[in-house]
Amino acid sequence: xxxxxxxxxxxxxxxxxxxxxxxxxxxxxxxxxxxxxxxxxxxxxxxxxxxxxxxxxxxxxxxxxxxxxxxxxxxxxxxxxxxxxxxxxxxxxxxxxxxxxxxxxxxxxxxxxxxxxxxxxxxxxxxxxxxxxxxxxxxxxxxxxxxxxxxxxxxxxxxxxxxxxxxxxxxxxxxxxxxxxxxxxxxxxxxxxxxxxxxxxxxxxxxxxxxxxxxxxxxxxxxxxxxxxxxxxxxxxxxxxxxxxxxxxxxxxxxxxxxxxxxxxxxxxxxxxxxxxxxxxxxxxxxxxxxxxxxxxxxxxxxxxxxxxxxxxxxxxxxxxxxxxxxxxxxxxxxxxxxxxxxxxxxxxxxxxxxxxxxxxxxxxxxxxxxxxxxxx
Length: 377
Ligand code: HEM
Prior knowledge:
By secondary structure, the chain is α+β, with helices and mostly antiparallel strands. The protein has helices at 2-38, 53-70, 176-187, 206-215, 267-278, 330-338, 355-376, and strands at residues 85-95, 114-123, 137-143, 161-166, 228-229, 234-236, 239-247, 283-291, 315-322. It is globular.
């Protein structure tokens, strides 16, 4: 009797496992087919601005200021995002001497030219936390003494060309409307629920939740040991591109970072300090661009889509060297915190494109102005 019961239970469980496997595989297959159909080209090579974007942007600025106030330090108001820096380091950005003529655009017009720059390396969170906590890692680069009229005509940033990235190739929302609802929910303390705005399954953003979970990744061993993506698109003279910065250790003298103690709260700063300041060894990168091919699904207005490298591979336009240096005195750390990086600190040849970038223009400016004003008091 008992034996027959166990056999029956075994068969039942076997069928259940088979059923779940078939449903899972079927669901995965249907999702793949659906996305292959939904995400197929061609796409527009021009920006398409939806109505109501400016009003949504104003609402997002209010929420951003609320986040800044919620997370303020006892002594200082911090950035709304990427609040914790591992360091601001001097860097040299050199245009590839053999750069292909089509890619000689904007600050990359003159092959072999070296720009002096500042690079801020950061964690993505709105509040400084232990580096071992899963998070996005940011890299912001500012080139100095760049001649020519800029997109933002404040005299304070007149000579600056910025590049602002984090270490994941896609963003957890597509556009400004979705950013507004998601960010508001997150500011109200809802994390996962932000991706399920109503009971209607058509509003559920499971793919975007997956991107958010992948973006919040374990830390690399060092801030100079990961790839940083622009995520959003930009002009590059006549081309539409995304850009990224990849480590290029082969362009620097050989160096192995000693083992890092990842229990230390600021081990990413410590790794940078070990390499640049103690071991006096430089770090090297390549700056690369990926051109849009609008015959394929490489949209300008959806930052959740990673452009296919099989269709359009990245092309190196410059090398970046971070020389050995001392970068973490108290004065340097405060000066680093007081910097403002903004993708709109740019020449028209490098104009930011797409809704998320249009949103960033107003938000970065407002948050930066707000924290500078509050910190000056
Ligand atoms: C394309 C996707 C994005 C990337 C790659 C990105 C990356 C970054 C990075 C690296 C920083 C730190 C810059 C620094 O070191 O000072 C930063 C700061 C900031 N980000 Fe983003 N971000 C993105 C999208 C957004 C969006 C959609 C918003 C909000 C609308 C936003 C709001 C901010 C704000 C307010 C700051 C601080 C600005 C300041 O106070 O100076 N970011 N972002």
